[in-house]
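re: ur question from yesterday

yeah so i grabbed the chain u mentioned. its 292 aa long if i counted rite. heres the sequnce exactly as i have it in my notes:
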Amino acid sequence: MTTAAFGLVLASAVIHATWNFLVKRSTNKLVFFWALSGVGFCVVLVPSIVFAIVDGFGWEQLLYGLGTAGLHSFYAVFLTRGYTTGDLSSVYPVSRGVGPALVPILAIFLLDESISTGAAFGIAIVVVGIYTIHIDTRFLRDFAHPLRALAAPGTRVAFLTGFVIALYSIWDKAGIDHDLHPMALNAFSIGSYFLTLTPFVGAGTGGEVVQNELRSQWRSIVAAGILAPSGYLLVLIALETTRVSYIAPTREVGIVLGAAMGVFLLGEGYGLSRIWGALLVVAGVITIGLSP
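ran it thru and got these C-alpha cells back, copy pasting raw so excuse formatting
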C-alpha cells in the first residue's frame, strides 16, 4: 500500500468513527441519524447521477442498488437502536468487528469459498476481543460477567448490526462487480437510511422533539451528513491504486478510535478493558484481511 493510499484510508477510519461519535452524542439518535442521512443524500445525489450516466445504468444495476438499499435499511434501524440502548465503546467495536469476521463464514455458504487457517485464527481473535470489551474491571474475579453483559440489549443489537454489515459487504461487492458505480451505490445506501427512518421519526417522535434536535444539533447533523459519504469517497480514491484486501482491514483501525471516544469523551464504563478489547478486534480483522 502506498503512503498516500494509507493516509487516505486512515483518514476514512477517523471520519467514520467521528460521525458515529456524533450520532451517539446526540440527544435523539433516531432523529439525528435521519437528518444526517438526508444531508448525506443531498451531498452524493448529483455526483451519483453523473457517474451513473457516464458509466451506464440498467435494470441489473437497479436490482443491485435496491438490494443494497434494503440491507442498509436494516443497518440504519439497528445502528440507531444500538446507540440508544448501548455504549459507543461497546456497540461500535462489536458491530464493526463482527461484520468482517462473518464475511468469510457467510462466503462459504453464499459464494462457495473456504476459510484459510489465518482467517479462522483472525475470527478467533475477534471473538476474544469482543469478550474483552465486556470485562468490567470491577468484577475481574467474575469471568462469567462478560457473558451476561453480552446479553444486554445494546450488545445484541450490535451483533445484528454486524451481521447486516457482513451481508451488505458481500452484496455491495457483487454490485460493483456488475458495474454499479460505488458512488451510485453510496447514494442507494444513504438514501435508504432517510426513507427507512422517516416513518419511525413520524410515528415515534413528536414534532417538537424533531425541531429541538434539529435546532440544537444542526451543526453536528451537517458535519455528520458530510462526513458519512466523504469517508467512503476517500476509500474509493485509495482503491484506485491499492488492493481491497489491504484497504478493508486498515479501515477498521477506527474501531480503537471509536472505543477511545466512548471511554474518554463520553465517560462510558469498563475503562481500558474496552480499549484492549478494541485492539484485539482490530488485530483479528487485520489478520482476516491479510489471510490468503
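noticed a couple things. The chain has one domain: 3-290. also The two ends are 17 Å apart (CA to CA).
anyway ttyl
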